[in-house]
Design a protein that fits this description.
CATH class of the largest domain: Mainly Alpha
Strand content: under 5%
Radius of gyration: 25 Å
Structural class: mainly alpha
GO biological process, one term: phosphate ion transport
Number of domains: 2
Number of strands: 0
Largest sheet: none
Function: Part of the binding-protein-dependent transport system for phosphate; probably responsible for the translocation of the substrate across the membrane.
CATH topology of the largest domain: MetI-like fold
Family: Belongs to the binding-protein-dependent transport system permease family. CysTW subfamily.
CATH superfamily of the largest domain: MetI-like
Main location: membrane
GO molecular function, one term: phosphate transmembrane transporter activity
Helix content: over 70%
């Protein structure tokens, strides 16, 4: 028997209670992890079983290509395109705001700000993540929208512009914090080599640090996109709940999440086609967010730079 094995057996004999407690902790953690997995599996099973029942009554071609989404009307239509258009418009406006501001903030935190200031700013950004999105929603509706209505003719009270602008600031920390961590992970030797060749600070950031941290930056953008697609309260409060197949940002729209809020607060009987339409939208939203998360993981694995 090796010396290490003898030492391990001696430690176990001297600390029997410690070993038992560790086994109990491990068992407890395993049970909790199993409960989490089983709960997730149960949610997926219920979601897709109800969705399957929906598609037994509604053709997939109508779901994908019909221009209207009116499942609660007397003459129902089930075209998801109206909700997808609203979701992409709302998300796109948010990303237009969040991506440049987030990357500039990340560059400042990792390359320009002193360490103590960087830690404080990142702490403030993390606090911003904890602000309830219902607060952002009412801020967009009651403060941002009146200002935009005075600047943009024909802008409706509920619109994706104000909602998307505020969404951009809501998801800003997801991009800035993850991207700054990725940029800080770039070895200092690469920066020093660039400075030795006469590069300026801006050239180091744009031509050395950004390319070296590209996997983390892209992952941050994809995760923020997933977060934006799933945003509920800002869309429901400020963008509206009117499914409309349009790309005009002045119009009232509905996103997949805002429709779920609208339908979930109604009185549709369980098992009805209207209630199953709710599950079909939820399944579509689930597939989009899952796809973005998988893409983020694949990008990190494929393009991650490894340094000695």
């Amino acid at each position: 028997m090796s010396t290490s094995s003898q030492n391990a057996n001696s430690w176990a004999n001297k600390h029997p209670g410690k070993s038992l407690s560790e086994r109990l902790i491990g068992t407890g953690l395993f049970i909790l992890a199993t409960i989490s997995v089983l709960t997730t599996a149960a949610v997926i099973v219920v979601l897709f079983s109800e969705t399957f029942q929906f598609f037994r009554q509604v053709p997939l071609t109508e779901f994908l290509f019909a221009p209207e989404w009116t499942p609660l009307f007397a003459d129902p239509r089930y075209g998801i395109g109206a909700l997808l258009a609203g979701t992409f418009l709302f998300t796109g406006i948010g990303l237009v705001v969040a991506i440049p501001l987030g990357l500039m903030t990340a560059a400042y935190l990792s390359e320009y700000a002193p360490f103590e200031q960087s830690v404080r700013v990142k702490g403030i950004m993390e606090l911003l993540e904890g602000v309830p999105t219902v607060v952002f929603g009412y801020f967009a509706l009651l403060f941002v929208t009146p200002i935009l209505q005075s600047l943009i003719p024909g802008l409706n009270l509920f619109n994706p512009i104000s909602a998307g602008l505020v969404l951009g600031f809501a998801i800003l920390p997801y991009i800035s914090n993850v991207a700054s961590d990725a940029m800080m992970a770039v070895p200092r030797s690469l920066r020093e080599a660039a400075y030795a060749l006469g590069a300026t600070k801006f050239e180091v950031v744009t031509r050395v640090v950004f390319p070296a941290a590209i996997s983390g930056i892209v992952a941050a953008i994809l995760l923020a996109t997933s977060r934006a697609v799933g945003e509920t309260m800002i869309a429901a409060i400020a963008a509206g709940q009117r499914p409309l197949l349009t790309l005009d940002p002045r119009e009232t729209i509905a996103t997949m999440t805002s429709y779920i809020v609208q339908a979930a607060t109604g009185d549709q009987p369980a098992g009805s086609l209207a209630s199953r339409a709710l599950f079909s939208v939820g399944a579509t939203l689930f597939m989009f967010t899952l796809t973005f998360n998988i893409l983020a993981q694949r990008v990190v694995e494929r393009y991650r730079e490894r340094y000695e």
